[in-house]
Fold each of these.
Amino acid sequence: MTSTTDTIARLRAEIRRLECSRAMLGDQRISSGCEALDALFPGGGVRRGSLVEWLRGGVGSGAATLALHYARQACRQGTSLVVVDRLRQVYPPALAGWGIDLAQVILVHPRDVREELWAWDQSLRCAAVGAVWGEIERIDGRSFRRLQLAVEDSGGVGLLLRPLRARIEPTWADVRLLVQPCGGQQVRRLSVHLLSTRGSAARGTVSLELDEWSGRLQKARDLHETRTGNLAASLARTTADRRATGTYGSSVDPV
Amino acid sequence: MILYERDARRGERVRACCQRAAAQGIRPGMPLAEVAATGMLEKTGGSAEGSYHIARHEPEEDRQALLHLAIECQQFSPLVGMAEGDSPDGLQMDLRGLDRVFGDERDLHGRVEEFFRRRGYFARLAIADTPSAASALARYPTEAVPPIIAAPGDRSLLEQLPVAALNLPDHVQQMLQHLGIDRLSQLESLPRASLAARFDSSLLQRLDRILGRADEVIVACHAPEDLNVRLAFEHPIVQPEAILWAIQRLLVQLAERLNACGLGVLQLECQLICQGGRSCEIRVGLFRVTADPDHLLGLIRMQLEQQRLPDAVHELRIDATSTAVCESRQRDLFAESIPRDLTKLGALIERLSSRLGSERVLRPELQADAQIERAYRCRPLTGEPTANKAATRERSRTDRSPPAAPGPMFRPLRLFDPPRPIEVIGIAMDGPPAKFFDRRETYQVARAFGPERMETGWWRGPSVRRDYYRVETTGGNRLWLFRRLQDQQWFLHGEFE
């Protein structure tokens, strides 16, 4: 039994090595500072030279906030954070509030979707950029692949904020996560679902809490096992399944 | 005509004014509001009787204009310099050995006076043995002393000058006034050793300069190098490769000139003049000063690709509109990683700015202001050397510590501009909402934090008065709402995304 799992692990590592064009980058991980969240990523934390998709499961969900935790860590060594903001809705003082040094931020306001993708591509390609953070509403497969190759080259991190409808689209991101707000709690609570990862079938869910005053991120203390279990089960169903039955997971906002 | 300057602490003050204004009692240092109160102000510069044209004082423009005059004055003397100091307000000319060209000093005086009059300036001129003496004579004309001191070494006349001519700090001048010293001759009769001990050391230095006992040099002004290149074609060209090749040739020429004076480009204008008089302009702003033709070519190419030329090009002009001293750094043998990263970042910023426009690639900065929309400002990252410096200088003077960032949970990452009006059902008149509707969605409020009241200063025009609430719905969505206090209308301003 152990030999089988060992073989699978070895093969998985082999596949990842083949898929990653820059083997010399190694396996550097960025931690958010919250172990529970990092544990959701295969290998623990966001890999340098990868893209991560954060799907928003509703308005004011907290997806951008979680992504920002990784952006902050990725720019620790004085590299720049590029914020691509086509809709002009990012509020810079809030970035500063989450501990980002605004002197490291480059705010880009592209006019249209084409310029937006171009700005993403250029920024991800630059080795002096630690992370690129921003909303991408729609992206076709080819552009997505180009972004992935760009980020692998530079060793930065691309944190893509996506709408929920992007869930059915193919992805070139290393990890795709869904962030959902959870109501009815004493503190602000979010649940993060791992929807897909490249080169592994790992799935998982974690509940996180954000402290009302300090903004500290930590694992939720009392887990509603049944609820999250149901969620994971409903999310694990394939799109074809859902189409066939014509139902959506009750806890996922239909879009 | 009134020029005003903005002082961080004292507000807008009159910096200088014309004689007519002075006759009406307007003095430098007076608050502009006081002048406005007299009702004599016409901001738009109307020439109505009894009103003044007012404008902000621009020291840098003054300096440039003076430099321009200095260069024109080189027709009289090979050595023309600006008076020393932070804000120079005079020119100095070396007249040694010029009598063969212009005749006697009185003739030259007349010519220079005529030169300025033709340009619409009223100039006060004086000729003396030393630059300091001449400028003192020009600034503090007295009946006792003629503006031209022909006899060399005639100190007795210079000693008649008032002590103000020494241009001393205010407190020293006041002290001298208290002591009853108002002429240089009185200072001269005092023992030198005690003067140095009692007053500023600059007093003796300036006194010596006026009286010709200390050496003084005039720092000559030079005309700035002409930094534009052009190329006219015999036959108009249309092929993009040919145009790029020509641009590259021009850039190499420009780079040679820039290198010769140790300068680099911050802003570049490339004009492609087409047949039929139409032209196409490409503007390139840079993050780092550079004189590298290949790099500049890359930036021009990126914009050229997006433009449609109206017709065949028959002339090219490239003009370095803004330059700065090129910083050349000696390369370290080993530690090369940080500068290399900086160059890469610079290249990225220039590429982004070049294609998207410099007003779209920005650096945010916090500002100390309670109003949400004004709590930050954005500066373009390229092509603005003077503005950047001015901004940092201003910041260091007005608020020494940068404004503190808000708490992480207090400001939303996503802000709607303008705020979206929403329908609200509330329980208490001045409390948080219980339920609200936005874009055909209904939200039930589970928890609300607030109110956080925001009011702007009455002096900034229409006032903004809002009560902000951080709201969590039953579904866990975090939103930022406010009630406009004037009319109790509710708005959705942001999402805690």
Amino acid sequence: MFRSCAGLVALSTLLLSSAAIAQEKIKVGVTATLEGTYTVLGEDGIRGHQTAINTFGKKVGDKELEFIIASTDATPDSAVRAVRKLIEQDKVQILLSPLSGDEGIAVKNFAKTRPELTFINAASGAQETTYVDPSPNFFRYNMDGAQWQVGLGKYAYETKGYRKIATVGEDYSFIYTQVFGLVLEFCGAGGQITNRQWVPLGTKDFASVIAALPDDVDAIYLGLGGADAVNFLNQYQQAGGKAHLMGGSIMVDQTILSAKGNAKNALLGTIAASGQADTWEDPGWQKFVKAYQDAFPPNKRFPSPSLLATNYYGSTMALILALRQVNGDLSNNQAKFKEALAKIELDAPNGKIKLDSNRQAIGTNFVTEVVDDGKGALFSKVVKVIPNVNQTLGYDPAVFSKIGLPSRTVPECKKY
Amino acid sequence: MTRFIERHPAWALIALIAVALLLWLILAVWPPGLEEAIGRKRVFLNAVLNGITLGALYFLVASGFTLIFGLMRNVNLAHGSLYLFGGYVGYAISVWTGSWILGFIIAFVAVALVGIVLQIAVFRRMEGQDLRQTMVTIGLSIVFADLMLWAFGGDFYQIQTPSWLIGPVELPLVTAVKSSGEAVYLRYPLVRLVIFVAAIVIGIVMWLALNRTRVGMMVRAGVDDRDMLAATGVPIQLVFVAVFALGAGLAGIAGVVGGTFQSISPGEDTRFLLASLVVVIVGGMGSIPGAALGAVIIGLAEQLGSVYIPTYAIVVTFLIMVLVLALRPQGLLARR
């Protein structure tokens, strides 16, 4: 039961310390949620990060990359503390951080106080991070929570015939962003949202939340992740829940689909949308899945990489490739490196990624449905692939800015 | 009871009306106006039952805590770690043997053993030095937390509910009446009811053991005057060890319960330490009935709070604690 990540960290430090001493090093600080509700997500993120290092190597010209990992617990202050520690104690020059939504907003704000350094978002997906007052040295190569829901609302309304749904979500920026994306599309198609329930991150006892779910809806949308999602499903099953479910991007994800126990079976047939789909046929994706599977023994990883592994892979890939383009030149406040980062176009496992003027990813989104592979393992199967999803979700920027920022009650359920 | 009514007739009347109102809310079919004002009855009933069953879990943790404090005047701040350890042991055993019940037994024994070692190796050495003991337990809880993080990782574990306990049962409580006149009964998860009943049984057995047996007599005497009890020739150290083992074992059982209807992960230790501290402060340090009352109050406050005032739910329990500390600092049911 010894966890992989401790070993992983130990291994990577070991490898690093034995590497050529005389060589000049570029220090990169990495944060992941290795504590608290999102522990499993953080661990798999680090696996994705490691897979990228295996694939692309750590050499940049005549320099060697050194990665230092710090742990957070999904709260903004823990992320800023970890980032500060990496900068002040470990003297890192580049950051690959953070994982979770609220952390992202905090780290972006912190990034402004250190304009000479470069921050590459690892996996966080709150809209505000890059949409409101973006920081010139903060780059995000994954889409935000709203982009990750593109396609779901229409699919639920048109194909599944859901007309009225209710949502349950964790009470923080990333899930606000996810519900934002869902509501815009679902209500735009003519659907109705009867009820939005918000629960604190790290809720253990969902019994009352489950009791308060409305009966007269066609489906219930779940925007939960990590331990919260597993707790919810476990208690949902104990309470005998039978409604149709819809899932957010970290709800229908290997972090939940391969959890121990049988509560996850409640998710069979659930429709969801995310920046990836487990069973996508694309050769690039299949190659990444293979690399991930080969990098770790089966009991130390998920059957297939989670969204977090994919995001960490993508951001690590961007970091290494952009550094190679400038041959590891970090002079002049890393100006050349930042320029390369802004321009780079990634051929990521989950489709092509390029950045907009706010340094926010434009990428591919997937609508999926949960299926059983016949041996009891659950996977998300592709239903629809939507390329070129931008942060304003295809809306005219002026219209989009009038909708308001994602929150408990925004957007309203209407056609914008 | 009668004395309380004689001394505070007004308060007794208010309490009576509150109880009657609560019973009416639970038993009667709600008129439509009420449903419009505060939501459906099903939600309310569920929240009440959830509060009580959550209270049962809190009681299991807090009763050991308060027992140890009552006898040894030792605020064991490593109590949360014992809870978490019990949960991990229960998980490992139930995965290994496939038996849920066996998980309880072994978790009880294993955590009780840890308690015995703690009492003999640590607390006996600094008997009577309250502050030193408290500081040591804080240190120990940090060491335990890191050891468990090392052994079990940051992952969350969930103990499998046995298949005969999965799913809801219908309770004879009417939540609504359909237009056809047919009554709709409340459906509630069986596993929570079983755990609730088990907690009541444990509470009654503990009360009987304390009030009706020779050992219980010694423990009560020890709570009142430790030195005098020792002077009468009772092997007081043995009683201490036994009580510590029992208190720790109960925390272990609670860990398995917590792992079954919630989940266990790092951080749960401090959460449950905090919960049991609040429970015993509200109920009264050292009192078993106090722990039961406090646990139900805190459980209800958390669950009703999460339904009716979700934004401020976290504050409610602490508000209750502050109120109790302001009006009755010794706790609701404390004897002294």
Amino acid sequence: MEGQMQVQEIMAILHKWGIHTLGQLAALDKEQLGARLGPEALRMWERANGQSNRVLKLIRPPESFEESFEFEHEIATAEPLLFMLRRFLEQLAVRLSAIYLVAKELTLRITFSNSRQDEPAVAEKQGYERVFKIPQPTNDVDLLFRMLQTHLENFRSEDPIVAVALSAEPIKPAREQFGLFETTLRNPQQLSETLARLTALLGSDRIGTPILEETHRPDAFRMEAFSWAAVESAVPSGETPHALRTAHATAALRRFRPAVTASILRDENKPAHVCSAEIQGKIVEKRGPYLLSGTWWSEKSWARAEWDVQLGAGELVRCHESEGIWKVDGVYD
Amino acid sequence: MSYCELHCCSAFSFLRGGSFPEQLAEVAAELEMPAMALLDRNGVYGAQRFSVAAREHGVRPIVGAELSMEGGSILPVLVENRTGYKNLCELLTQAHLRSEKGKCAVHWDELPEFAEGLVVLFNASLANCRASVSDANPSRRFTETPHKLIDVFGRGNVFVELQRHFIRGEERINRQLIDIALAHRLPLLATNAAQYAKPYGREVLDVFTCIREHTHLDIAGKLLTQNAERHLKSERQMRAIFADLPEAIENTSRLAERLTFSLENLGYEFPEYPVPAGHTMDSFLRTIVWFGAQQRYAAISRKVKRQIEEELALISKLGFPGYFLIV
């Protein structure tokens, strides 16, 4: 910017001097010009005399690996959609392979037409977007297509489809050399396909790796995306997994997941008899209540009163009451 | 015998208490508590405000502090008399003077010098005081620390503090504490180690914890409290919680009766001014004043003489000669 300003200032001075053409500038004395107008004017004089040139810089626009298609007629079945997606995948695979890249992520965008009955002229477009992470980045069209097909098998929409787009996130292919005795996934593609099928069946929030949450809420966990690498490093050798450590563990608790709903008979506000699908009997000994509560600042606030009870048959059971509902958490070994 | 809360901290325990001293005094009065002790962390910061508010509400205020000991444990101390208050203040001053702000720690070996007039509570926190006993074995530390406290403060001034907050695992520690009390013939003392006046104070305390730990509520996790049980509780509630240990409740009022110190009649004692042999501070001040007067007035009039005598008499009566000699 500074250089540009300087050029403009020099040009203004040159115009005042009556220099209006490159020929007039080239005819000026180089040394005299430099002494009066500085180094930028010298560079301009050199360019006017053909003694220097500016090299053009080639700037490539970032390559976008996206294919899209707008259907002439709205479609209501999966076949034309799958046909288009296969074509997209073939084109993307060719483009990626040509520059030695593979796809690590696919993004599928489907646009619906939501024509209103009362206002047929106004067509409101709605979209659906879904990102597919590919565990082992690849350009294998069959594999990628199977992944999309599995997902779309369970895909339902009330509105007809007007457009579809597929974009790929490229990455350099991984080059790994495994040790002789190292175990690895025998078929990462099959794993990804299985995961995709399970996700389609169960929903994305119900598949992954459970991670224990750092909270006082017993057995609280969240699901994180399944990762093969994470499995390898989950339990460092020689260490007990964190999930198994408790501050005062003297007996292991076998948890029922989810906790079993129970009905409890009370005596002086303390549990006296428990009855559930898994456990039933008279309570002969009890410890508690252990009061726990948290997340009071949000709608997810919770509170529970836990009891450790011993049944007539000798079983040690942990149960809790929350919002008036009793549940059996598990049995101590 | 009534229950008195003898371990409670206010918002003056920086980010460790959720209620102002006045709120604590008000709730103590609501709960018909005859006396209550305020033990702020490493200071008696809230004591004055608490004392005034407590007296207004008809609750007898007791002064104390939680001392951060080297090794990370917390030693709750209660002031029995004026000597105890003086010792506590000196101990705290020394600890603060040599430490960075917010990192005050009392040395175990300086306790004997300032032990007179103080009553200490032995609790679960002291089981982990590494510096108190050289052995790193936790079970030995647990049993040897009471020995040390008895040696320093005297058997009659050490109480074993029991707390029940409905938390899993605390009963195991309480059983160990009861065993120690039996083994050393120490009295048990039930407290709720209250950190806020009403149950909703837990929310303030959780927010304070986040500020102290430089985090926020959503990710603070186990840094936050497990439940809202650290509030002031009535005698009926505490008797129900300690139904198996009624003596632990009764000992609270017994101990409260012993702790007679009050900030009300504390007054202020000016530092002593060194005077020449044969002089008291009064006589030395009188000498200096008359000497100065003679220099100022060539002849001292009767009016000036009377004025000087009146002033000196008042200074002597109020015990201020040290102050006038110093300034």
Amino acid sequence: MRNDINEAHDAEEDISSSGSDESKKRKVVVPGEVIVSGEDYLPGEGAKRLGENIISIRFGLAEELGRVIKVIPIFGAFVPRRNNVIIGRVTDITFYGWLLDIDSASSAFLPIEESPRFVNKNEMEQFLAIGDVVSAKIWSVKSKGIDLTLKGKGLGKLEGGFIFRVIPSRVPRVIGREGSMINLIKDKTGCQITVGQNGWIWIKGDNVDAEIKARKAIEFVTDKVHIEGLTDKVEKWFEENK
Amino acid sequence: MAKEKESSFKRSDGRKLNEMRPMIAKVGIIPNADGSAMFTFGNTIAIAAVYGPRKLHPQHMQNPQKAVLRCNYDLLSFSVSDRKKPGPSRRSQEISKVTEWALSPALDLNSFPNTVVDVQIYILQADAGTRTAGINAASLALAHAGIPMRDLICSVAVGKLDKNLVVDLTKEEEDFEEGEGATDFAMAKIANSDEFTLMQLDGKIQPEVINEVTKLATEACKQIYEVQKKALKDVVESNGGKK
């Protein structure tokens, strides 16, 4: 299967709450808002300490993980991180590799050495031509650019099907806890789906109807920002939209 | 003494001296942008869209330490009764620049080197206080775009009509000519702190009353902050700001 990788490494970033446990309380916070006060807490990502209080520095959902408070943004552009699996489109071929558009601030480069098999430098377009869509993993993020790799399970050129975009910060919801959400959608529609952390989603199914249904299911998920028990809701949605 | 004056002076639209025009704030109005918002003061309507962080061209403008904030403010040609010629003017360039300065102290752009955050502010309808409405909208749009910021920015103008200090002037009041005439004092403030990030004075004012002016602005900013906060929370409640 194509996207085993996405599912595994994103389970921890999961903001959906399929089978939510009581200790995780979420609330919407705006920048500068006091989330909790007291010396017992530690500011995590998206939060900082100001005197007695932990304040949010982003607009999003505040979450308590033990003593750590973090804020997960619900809108905004993709910020690349190491080990993210993304979907990109080839925009240029250079002597040393391919340049990819991955919808982020800096350009992404896929060196020829990082392709899974040997590629002749004179025949690079036979492996990846301009306009081809690939799923790749971010190998490093530097201030001047992003390096990608194709070495890994489930990575490589995506052929057929179509891609569309969702808000990048909603991707963890689409995947669900340990891939529960995306597996459900795959099961119900019988499509192959690859979800990139940059918000690009690739779908390929046996027929157009199944593909469109999968896309609608994913859009149904991304529209629900902070609803608990979303996997059950999607299951119900499939019942209603047979 | 001040109380007596308050009772004798009437504002043209019947508001109290420290009363603001009705405010409306909406977030997520432009689906294509990474963040967007609308803010209105009575008849003044401002919209703001945020794009980025994205790659900055030309490259020589890039800052390897942090993202660059780039604001663009303009009136739409139909926003005023005499058609405004489209394109940048001396006035709109100045306001773009002061808006940038008013917003940047609240932003934390260190995690996005070599990039730019673009903020576009357009005034759909102008009835004085356009730069303040624009800053309020831009602050909301930046928060909506998920840009790290330590607080929201609230902005309001305090004016002096003859000898009376009033909050949130209309165009009619700005043209007030009796007595000492009209003074327009636009201010922006970090919401949960006493730091001011914009102070622009147009007209004359006695140094002694500046304290009074900042107090009025602080009070008004509290109301603005509540409106902004509600707008941001509402967008999550409603549909989640469909892209």
